[in-house]
Design a protein that fits this description.
Length: about 375
């Protein structure tokens, strides 16, 4: 059983689990969820909770409609609601003597290597102190360009950074079904998914609740990140009481199995980027070289797409625009536009200064 065997577990909670359709706090659910977390502690698990709800709770406090909020107003509401959210967890967790802390992250915090490492160290230190981090997106300062926009993908990135073995996305359904279970009685729960193909993508139809911003589509995106990070991921019903206990005893959920078992931390971070800044389209010769474990040189690059700087995440595509690898660029997009298709020996002459010969070094590259 994947959850029972895991050492570090990330649990993601949506707004609709904290607040019902009548804008009332789900007190009974929170009491039972605290018992679930306490049980995981008894099983010696490191636990991280990624929770939505700041804006929803802020709206509840101020008696506002979330759907009518503009970005700048929602950021202020999030600032108010964040205190409400943490007070909510403190109220119900303290009864079970569960110590909590707060961590606010933005997309940039997880895309920049140094920030990601700092976050990982913070998680590790909190585990050693016996505290459970409650993570949320830093809605108060993040603009739409640097936001995840949903906590499913944030949770998967947190799982990857923290080296978690398991991510549980608590939803309003038991998992991914062959058809929409709310409409079709013949829908069957898919218990395990090894590969996310076109059929799985089609099944993941988007559904948005009043409080939530995600749907099954964002959960599939999260699963892709987990699969490339060596992390198991489950979509499970969170609306029932003791949802974690239900997974442990009945395993009534959908599990996404990782594609890889081991990758060093740096390469896990590279492969899990959710916002690559651009693409490099390469020829067959370069593709064959990369398959043999070589670095990407300028001579094999046919085209450049996007604007990016040195050190940014980029995708490497074959001539049919199929993604082959991801990596960190040693050059800016403007520099690559100048040196693409050229031999490494003349790069310095073309740019007017001495530089590296590899556009993407093999140590900074991970094949998809």
């Amino acid at each position: 059983m994947y959850l029972r065997e895991s050492k570090t577990v990330v649990v993601k909670i949506g707004s609709s689990l904290l607040i019902d359709e009548n804008k009332k706090i789900r007190d009974k659910w929170l009491i039972n969820f605290a018992k679930d977390i306490q049980n995981l502690q008894k099983l010696k698990k490191n636990i991280i909770i990624v929770s939505s709800g700041a804006i929803a709770l802020g709206c509840k406090k101020l008696k506002l409609n979330k759907k009518s909020l503009k970005l700048d107003k929602s950021q202020a509401i999030a600032s108010i609601g964040q205190i409400e959210l943490m007070n909510l967890f403190k109220k119900y967790f303290s009864v079970n003597k569960i110590n909590i802390s707060q961590i606010l992250l933005t997309l940039e915090d997880t895309e920049k290597r140094r920030r990601a490492i700092n976050a990982k160290r913070t998680f590790e230190n909190l585990f050693s102190l016996g505290f459970i981090p409650i993570v949320n997106e830093n809605d108060s300062i993040a603009t739409s360009e640097i936001k995840y926009g949903d906590n499913d993908r944030l949770a998967s990135r947190v799982a990857q950074i923290s080296g978690a073995d398991c991510l549980i996305l608590l939803s309003d359904v038991n998992g991914l079904y062959t058809k929409n279970p709310k409409i079709d009685r013949n829908a069957k729960l898919i218990k395990e998914i090894k590969s996310i193909d076109e059929n799985i993508e089609k099944i993941a139809t988007k559904s948005i609740s009043e409080h939530g911003t995600g749907g099954m589509k964002t959960k599939i995106d999260a699963a892709k990140i987990c699969q490339l990070s060596g992390c198991h991921m489950a979509i499970a019903n969170g609306l029932i009481n003791r949802p974690i206990k239900n997974i442990l005893l009945k395993n009534n959920c959908t599990w996404f199995l990782p594609k890889i078992s081991k990758l060093d931390a740096r390469k896990k971070w590279i492969i899990s980027s959710i916002s690559p800044k651009g693409d490099l389209i390469i020829d067959d010769g370069a593709l064959n070289a990369l398959k043999k474990g070589k670095s990407l040189l300028a001579a094999g690059i046919k085209n450049v797409r996007g604007n990016f700087n040195k050190g940014d995440h980029i995708k490497i595509l074959d001539k049919n625009l199929k993604e082959f690898a991801r990596g960190l660029s040693s050059f800016t997009s403007d520099e690559i536009s100048i040196i693409k298709g050229q031999h490494s020996k003349i790069i310095s002459n073309l740019l007017g200064y001495v530089s590296k010969s590899e556009v993407v070094h093999k140590d900074d590259m991970v094949r998809i």
